[in-house]
Amino acid sequence: MLDTVFFYLFTLLTLGGAILTVATRNAVHSALFLITSLLGVAGLYLLLHAEFLFAVQIIVYVGGIMVLFLFVIMLVNLDAAAAQRQFSRMWPVALGCVALVGLELFYFLGKGEPAFRIAAPPPVPEPTAGNTERIADVLFSQYLLPFEIASLLLLVAVIGSVVMAKKRI
Amino acid sequence: MEFFIVSTIKALLVFFVLMTTLAYLQWVERKVIAHIQLRQGPYRVGPHGLLQPLADVIKLITKEGIVPPHVNKFFYFLAPIIAVSMSLIAISVIPFGGEIEVFGITTHMQLTDLNIGLLLVLALASMGTYGIALAGWASNNKYSLLGGLRSSAQMVSYELPLSLAIASPLLLLNTLSLREMVTQQEGFMLGFLPNWTIFQGPAPQLVGMVLFLIAAFAETNRIPFDLPEAETELVAGFHAEYSSMKFAAFFMAEYSNMLTAAAVTTTVFLGGWLPALPGMAGDLIAPAVFATGGAVCLYHGLNPARKRDKYTLPVFALVFFGLAALFLAPPLKDIAMPLFWFGAKTGALLFVFIWIRGTLPRFRYDQLMGFCWKFLFPVAVLHLLATALLVALAG
Amino acid sequence: MNGVPLSWYLVLSAILFSLGVAGFLFRRNIITIFMSIELMLNAVNLTFIAFSYDLRQVNGHIFTFFVMVVAAAEAAVGLAIILTVYKNRGTLNADDVNSLRF
Questions:
Q1: How far apart are CA B146 and CA B133, in angstroms?
Q2: How many structural domains is chain C composed of?
Q3: Is residue C64 part of a domain?
Q4: What is the mean pLDDT of chain B?
Q5: Which of B156, B160, B166, B373 should be substituted to probe chain A, the one whose Cβ sees the most A Cβ atoms within 10 Å?
Q6: Residues B176 and B208 in one domain
Q7: Closest CA to B264 of B173, B192, B193
Q8: CB-neighbour burial class of residue B27 (10 A; exposed 0-12, middle 13-18, buried 19+)
């Protein structure tokens, strides 16, 4: 019962935030609504027993990426842009694409619950270790190579952004 | 049902103690800074200015709350709320003591123990950035905006060495729950050296603690890293347009952040509520400290420098002796002792915060960023790697 | 699933993803377009976690973790590009930045 209530609450946060992110004119408001949406998703992670990712979502997304966004928005002057036309010139194409996605969504919604059923989950015993420990175990054994590659990716990103942002190297 | 009642009582208790501590922390800070600068500090309201916090609170509440006409109202009011709530929530995962039994109910001296406790503290710290960034932006004032931008850049940058510095003791402790961290540090090595993370083998974390404290200074916007509010260049930075309770909220957030930083350092590096000395010696230190305080008060009360000292100081002496007796009474001892050690360690760290404010000048902005990225961050990475290597070698 | 079935999460993330697609295609401001991408990434992450919970595995969590890493890298590089574009052209309208257009 309680988790249903929380599910609706977080859904409201997520979807409300997302709609307003896409719809508002002011870029700062847009970013703040996106933060609301991300916090809603973080709450859903908590409902799904993904505590570690809940924390990572807040630390990395809300506390890192979105601060970067706000930083850039505050640096560039978007007051003039907010007064202008908000929609892209390619909107008919966009409308077609979105209609397609929406249609697909409603088709599956119309088919009801069975459409979402995947194969029955394998009978895995409830794990004894906590969420964070299990993630660490898998991450540093099975997914070690991707982990290392990810670190390389971050290094490239750091160097790339410094090169681009600096006037003279 | 019992759980809810106990939790509510604990929450209310922690809230009131926290509020009083925050108010008096500010009094302590003013006093310490004053004595560092050979002044007296607040002296008029109550004995030695002890009622000054109360006077300040009344002043801040009754002051007119001016809302400048050009601000973005919603975010202008939201910013201090975010700042203060994020910093207060973080206290809820800090353990003040072990398991106790009051009126037949067994409970922990901690509001809640999460298996991601430490991560939650970090997450809330990163959320706190928004309070300051939004305040700067919503004030619609160029000084505020600069202060807000500086702070968001500073806090995002210093979060990295902060997280890296706190990751290395985790390698020794193997848990993210703050309560378990403390229980992992129980016991003594060689019979006298406490098994805290800063002493614990195979990789003592003394450097880690220093790194963490430096980064925490920047996270809490304290001198020498208080650039977001640098009065001389930015008027008052992000809170230039804030007055009365809204200003008080930022003030409270800063002190509460400081308290959280000190409490987390205590828990992770200094063994939380565990005593620093083994056996009887550890048990006797607390009453000895308070009895000494009482004796000093009594001595000065009997040889009064001013007329009214004849009456006030013996009262304080009585209070101190009462506190000392509290630590010797068997049923109260189990509650008071952990609180004493936790308070002593946290208080010592808070004193360092204040001491440094009285000693160091402010950094320049490029120095601050350069220090973070060119010194603190690499050192924190190296420290983490060295700790990992030592832990791996020790098996 | 205690109370909330898997399908609810899937529908929610589908709607979230569509909103991201809509924002990405309709808006002119590059920063808003960028934020729509973040919305889509979050929708995918939510699906990963929901399936992971349903299947009692942590592999979905790992994928989400990597998606977040990529999102962080993408944000850093993307925002640097945005700043450069703004410095060189003084505008952030996707319609006006069209030198590479065929």
A1: 9
A2: 1
A3: yes
A4: 84
A5: B156
A6: yes
A7: B173
A8: buried
ipTM: 0.89
Residue B99's DSSP bridge partners are B108
> Binning pLDDT at 50, 70 and 90, where does residue C1 land?
very low
B99: three-class secondary structure by DSSP: strand
Distance, C-alpha B203 to centroid of its chain: 26
If contacts are CB pairs under 8 Å, which of residues 52-111 in chain B contact chain A? 75
Tell me the average pLDDT across A143-166: 89
d(CA B77, CA C101): 45
Q: How close C100 comes to chain A (CA, Å)?
A: 16
Task: For B147-177, write each residue's pLDDT tens digit.
Answer: 788 877 888 888 889 999 998 888 888 888 8
Taking only residues 82 to 101 of chain A, the set having a beta carbon closer than 8 angstroms to any beta carbon of chain C reads 84-91, 93-94, 97-98, 101
* Residue with tokens 């609504």, as numbered in its chain: A33
Query: Do B183 and B245 sit in the same domain of this protein?
Result: yes
C18 CB-near residues (< 8 Å, 6+ apart) = A98, A101, A102, A105
Local confidence band at B348 (pLDDT 50, 70, 90 cut-offs): very high
Q: Which domain-ending residue is among B58, B74, B105?
A: B58
Domain boundaries, position B218? 63-274+329-394
Structure tokens at B157: 């940058």
Q: Quick one: average pLDDT of C47-58?
A: 86
Which residues form the domain of C55? Answer: 7-89
Give per-residue pLDDT as tens, A60-90: 888 888 888 888 888 786 666 666 766 667 7
Residues B112 and B233 in one domain: yes
| CA–CA dist B360, B36 (Å, integer) | 12
